[in-house]
Design brief:
single chain; Rossmann fold; 5-stranded parallel beta sheet; 13 helices; elongated
């Protein structure tokens, strides 16, 4: 007996895929009680006029059947050099997502594809709206970064027969093949904690972040949870400064901890890059020094952060490799095993000033600037 294969964040189970029957132009025509030519005129806005009554019948039938035009057939009728990919990103103001989007766009161009980007704001409804809009215009594949509405996105793309590459992390089960292209976030948490404990002899360190539905309504709580798991594997206990995933939340939570009257921790691991600067500000506003009193390690710092007052020690993901694998996942789906597990990619530690490792890592050209 065939069954539809499903997958959770951890991967896919076994079983045969059952692809749902795609509604055809003839199905819409039959339900509306018109000819296929009339359906074509309505959906393509011509070349012949159609009465408002017939147009309403056709559109109602198309909606009922969830009909979508065949993107491959349409592409054959309109040959062009540049084809299109869709990309969903939660927040382009964050350095990690901006870097991923930029690298994915570059990789797509090498394969003669332009990228349409939807900035979703961790809004599940907006994710689905962008998905439907992109599949309607005829994309060759969809790349989804940090999705929170994974089940509906996967169903929509499966109906439209559009391959999907899941990147960084996702929330909820996936329908059909579900490889995830991501860094090893658990290893990232281990590396950050181990650097403070083993390299800097910090005996008391805390993790700044939140990863439950109560802590975080919108945000990448899955990645933070995995980083916290790695942190605990080194420290042996969970000393957690609870916060949502906003800079304001981190500032408030860290400030409250440092002003509570108890001894401050010797080190902090900050779960997201977006909260690192707020955490450092909370430390200095409490009258403490970074790294003199509290050493700090974060994640995914951008190169622009090299010009801050204190450069952040950060565990980084292999952005270029992730982008290459994601593009290959959607464009080479016919020639690759799309049900195979993806091994999380290794991460690296980029030492900065916030942990006390290096006094100055600004570009050498900065020191060569002429004196005024």
């Amino acid at each position: 007996m065939n069954k539809t294969r499903t997958a959770s964040d951890g991967g896919c189970d076994t079983g045969a895929n059952v692809t749902p029957k795609r509604p055809t132009l003839a199905d819409v025509a039959a339900l509306a009680g018109v000819s296929t030519a009339v359906v074509s005129y309505v959906l393509n806005d011509g070349p012949r006029p159609v009465s408002d009554t017939l147009r309403a019948k056709v559109l109602a039938a198309a909606d009922e059947l969830r009909y979508r035009p065949d993107r491959n057939a349409r592409a054959l009728r309109r040959p062009r050099k540049w084809r299109q990919l869709g990309l969903l990103v939660p927040d382009l103001t964050l350095p990690l997502y901006a870097a991923l989007a930029g690298r994915l766009e570059i990789e797509a161009r090498t394969r003669d594809h332009l990228t349409m980007i939807g900035n979703t704001g961790y809004d599940p409804d907006r994710e689905l709206e962008f998905t439907t809009a992109f599949t309607d215009v005829g994309i060759d594949g969809l790349i989804v970064v940090g999705a929170v509405n994974t089940p509906e996105i996967s169903k929509s793309c499966r109906r439209a027969r559009v391959p999907v590459a899941w990147v960084h992390n996702r929330r909820g089960p996936v329908e059909g093949p579900a490889p995830l292209v991501c860094a090893d976030h658990v290893a990232a948490g281990r590396l950050a904690a181990a650097h403070l404990v083993e390299d800097h002899d910090c005996g008391d360190i805390a993790f700044v972040g939140g990863f439950t539905a109560d802590d975080v309504e919108y945000g990448d709580r899955e990645t933070v949870a995995q980083r916290h798991e790695g942190f605990v594997s080194i420290t042996g206990s969970s000393t957690l400064i609870h916060t949502d995933l906003t800079p304001e939340g981190a500032y408030r939570a860290v400030s409250a901890r440092l002003r509570s009257g108890t001894a401050p921790p010797q080190g902090l691991v900050v779960g997201t890059n977006g909260q690192a600067a707020a955490t450092m500000r909370a430390v200095t506003d409490a009258g403490l020094r970074v790294p003199g009193d509290i050493r700090i390690v974060g994640f995914d710092a951008g190169t622009n952060q090299n010009f801050g007052q204190i450069t952040l020690t950060s565990v980084k993901q292999p952005i270029d490799t992730i982008a290459q694998h994601a593009i290959a996942d959607v464009l080479d789906r016919a020639t690759t095993d799309d049900s195979a597990e993806r091994t999380p990619m290794p991460v690296t530690l980029d030492r900065g000033e916030s942990c006390g490792c290096r006094p100055d890592i600004r570009p050498a050209a900065l020191h060569a600037a002429p004196k005024l």
